[in-house]
Specification:
alpha/beta, seven-stranded mixed sheet, globular, four-stranded antiparallel sheet, homotetramer, Aspartate Aminotransferase, domain 2, 2 domains, 343 residues
Chain lengths: 343, 343, 343, 343
């Protein structure tokens, strides 16, 4: 079985395992204060080309999202998110468990717009009973989105402006950021994110690390006591070096970019093949996730050979998700393309 | 510098790194449902020799403790703990962040007793204003304790009985359990813990894993929906295999026991040397942590050569903590013993 | 200005003020343990004609709702509610502040159905990633609803059955229950609610009390420690008698029924007048709230004379809410009817 | 039976009941926006003689305390309090239920000092593992304390200075403030509190109101969105006028001062009598609470005639609490004095 179900089904990029082995017996202090974490922070800062206050390494996406909302929001505030946003749908109520409501806006291809945010806030503050509803305190978006689509730099700047107008923090989930950055259609750089978001993260788990996300906090006030929160929510690893070493490797000699490029080029091959064979896509996603609408014929042809993940039912078949990653083998892509029937 | 500051200053036991490398390209489903996790669970169950409902792998100790309290307590309940308990002192208010108070009892050598628990509960329920105070809902202890001391089987059984009498859950923090189990003075087995505690965990982070604790839940009711909580608090790793592989290795061919024995034997050598040189100990701890009271002479002799961690000031010097682990090299112990001046 | 904006714009029914004055100097113990609370509980129990575990008096609706959800839900669970439900929209995220998500279902005239609940739960448990979403743990409905509509006994029984099938608690918000009970269209009695709901409440604030809701808890397990929660959330009044005296009066000599009947008969007069003059209603609500769709002509005619509350914009005008209550004066209704222009 | 058990065992001061009756049929908007609340706010502001941002009326003390801590603290912070503080002991973990730890300092006659606060903070920030413990974020004190003792203006100013030095908010629980203000020994005015505390409250429940506390928030930033929090925690009454009317009465024609003076003078008579008869006091409390140490003889003499509340066991007897209030009748004090045996 060749699996295209997700971008986290293998272990880690081999260079990461090598680095873990090489450094294994070095004794370091714990809790993210070791020299590997420091080195990784410096390398990331060099890529950001922008002033940020802190960089913190965290085990996974849900944890980073819940720390981000807990950090950004006052007790009576909620987080604006697309109704398809990961925090709105797939994190078991993690934001609510920190005491905050997720305020959903209808998505367009997984995205929300500055106009929607402004309209929501304007209506909120215009209401005579505003205090009987949840005050919007931040905007949560992800780049790329749940549907693999991208915010443009223009869209991001507009959202920032809306945030400024209504006193909202802007938090960007970058669990799959590696695949956005490598995408020809993308015009949002790490530096843009560092300047426009109050906090954002650079995903590691889905980019070849065993685990780990690098949370970048621009604002000094938010950053100052963040490590208390990190510890309080069980997110501060005793062997913090495990995360530092991995990000240090990812940001050495362009490995992070290389991982992204590889996945994007393999995704492009799959995309062209599906399109060429006459399949429609649920959304036009330019990143490492594809959502072809497959009929019975294709599903039967794949059975037992190629695993995609089920997304939703669709007229005449099923929308399936195919993912590529750092680990996708070109020969596996070749094989699927070869076996793909006409729609 | 030779470091005895903690038992988590190196990476992982080499066998763990080997296993990660060997399995690296195998594709698995995520979130702890892979074959490595299953295998690790089976091996742990075999050691437990007792019926338990579930075994879950979690990144670290604070996270496991907060999940445990959130799982065991009703909203108006608190956790009884020694005033030196990790949840009471060193977890940044993680239990309070889940909405619960830690109800502290004065420790004796890091321990609390069944008699203290019963007295607290009796007084609570006898009060006319019981409802104006926090209802005790669980007991939190650790084996070994923060001071490296051990509960005996008799003490543990008595605590279980007190819990039964007052409707309390019993949760045992086993972050350093490996070092209790390997200790000649210890008479509490894994099987005893599985039968006496509602939930307990087998520490990995301090026992040679990169990270990871194995939470064992006896009660079916507590276990049934635990994975929701795991996800909600950001504790469910996408690449859950990372934890499964490690525990699988630790519980293969007696590695877990071997790691414990090694650390305990090196700790015994240090203990004998300190005692022989005339040093007193803060507490008589039989496990992998020693708390010698060192004067200026010893502190100067160690300077720049041996790192211990500061514990507290004491008359005539400082109580320092020395830890051994799976990674402690006998020749490093030799060296320290050689350089240790008379008290 | 004659006000029909809400049912809580006056003080209290005169009999309540009389009782407060008469009992004022009697010394009682605090916290809801006084003889007035006891007497009120007995009178309510007599009306319920069903076995219930506890009756607790609470200051207001939002507080009762948040106590109810905190009591019913496990940490990883959420409350199913109509998307128009008070907890979903108008309580400032109070449920989320207790750590729980409100899971909304699309309403039909303010109501949700057993079929919707079952479908939601079936889909939830069928999902391979159920644990990545919020587990439904209870159903929240109100009688009457936000739109003044009523659940029939058949609908309520079906919801109870769906709750049984999926392990859900059923909580009924009865802030305006007095007006449902007095409604000719209603076939759900207090006794039905006591038997079908795990907990429900009998509103006082909108039924002539200064403040206060009587929460009825059927289940012994939920009730046992409820007073801890009551105190913990700041809902236990030192002078609990204030609530006891009021409910004692409301449930003496049928005052509660009388209050309901009066409001319903005045609402019926308004309803007939609006209908007769050619106005449509946003929803066909048989209780004390009416939602006529008023055009410019009517709005101008009312200006400065009759206050209704704005509900929403509508084609050709505005949907306005008119409420009657225990305090509505028939002559005020006469006046409005007299001044009501043809649509 | 003549009861001196607490200061909340009667209804309300007759002037309050009169005002409720007189205003009963006036129609007002809800939620604390009515003219009575406005009038009460103006009268309180006039007494404060200091710039404050907002005044909010809340049902009770526990609720006000939990709103205050939720308002003042960041998620990772805790509240410093005397170990005898009401939030530390008698509120069922209400602060913890908002996610925060109560950090206790040992009390001296119910009080904590600026020196203790500074020492705690200095030690906290000096620690290498500060982030593994709870960051102090505010100081909670009450005036008078649980033991009826008073902070002097000098002590309060010192505490304010310590708060400034370590970035702490200062919150003063004034549930019994009326009795402090009327006390000859007291040198802290309402105006001092308004200038020195970030927030404090003027108790109503124990000062002749049916219920209600007036929370005064000095800081504009804290005040701006406070009403969201008020609503979210179920503390915003629909008929907010009920609180407004009461505080309006209390602050009209010096009633608040009169209530305090009456209670203090009756307490002074009791104090002199107990002292004269040879009884010792648990603490030298100058306010409306006395804590005489009574032996068997006195307890028997009181049996069935005078009720005091049990405080704690003491050598040779029991410490009992006697309270006076606005409602204490001089002839009842006469009677007790007459029946008091020599110690």
């Amino acid at each position: 079985m060749i699996r295209f179900e997700s971008d986290y089904q293998e272990g880690a990029h081999p260079k990461i395992l090598e680095a873990l082995a090489q450094t294994n017996f070095e004794q370091t202090p714990g809790y993210g204060t070791d020299r590997f974490c420091e080195s990784a922070r410096e390398k990331i800062r060099a890529e950001l080309k922008a002033e940020v206050s802190g960089i913190h390494f965290i085990s996974g996406g849900t944890q980073t999202n819940l720390l981000g909302t807990a950090m950004c929001l006052k007790p009576w505030q909620g987080a604006l998110s697309a109704d398809t946003g990961h925090i709105a749908v797939h994190e078991s109520g993690s934001v609510e468990a920190t005491g905050h409501k997720v305020l959903t806006l209808p998505n367009t291809l997984g995205k929300i717009s500055a106009a929607q945010i402004s309209a929501f806030c304007r209506e909120h503050y215009a209401s005579l009973t505003a205090e009987h509803t949840v005050q919007p305190g931040m905007v949560y978006i992800s780049q790329p989105t749940e549907y693999g689509t991208l915010y443009s730099l223009k869209e991001l700047k507009d959202i920032r402006q809306a945030c400024n107008e209504f006193g909202l923090k802007l938090f960007v989930d970058g669990a799959r950021l590696v695949y956005a950055l490598a995408c020809p259609e993308n015009d949002v750089t790490l530096s843009d994110l560092a300047r426009l978001a109050d906090a954002f993260y650079i995903g590691g788990t889905k980019a070849g690390a065993l685990l780990g996300e690098a949370l970048v906090i621009r604002d000094a006030e938010l950053d100052r006591s963040f490590r208390y929160l990190l510890k309080q929510r069980g997110a501060m690893l005793a062997k913090g070096r495990l995360l530092g070493i991995q990000f240090d490797v990812l940001f050495t000699d362009g490995l992070y970019r290389e991982i992204g490029s590889h996945a994007i080029s393999q995704a492009a091959r799959l995309r062209a093949a599906f399109a060429g064979a006459g399949y429609a896509f649920r959304v036009p996603s330019p990143t490492n996730q594809l959502f072809p609408n497959l009929g019975e014929k294709a599903l039967r042809a794949f059975e037992g050979k190629y695993a995609l993940s089920f997304w939703e039912d669709a007229p005449g078949g099923k929308v399936m998700r195919a993912c590529t990653s750092w680990a996708t083998r070109p020969e596996d892509v070749d094989a699927l393309i070869r076996d793909l029937p006409k729609a």
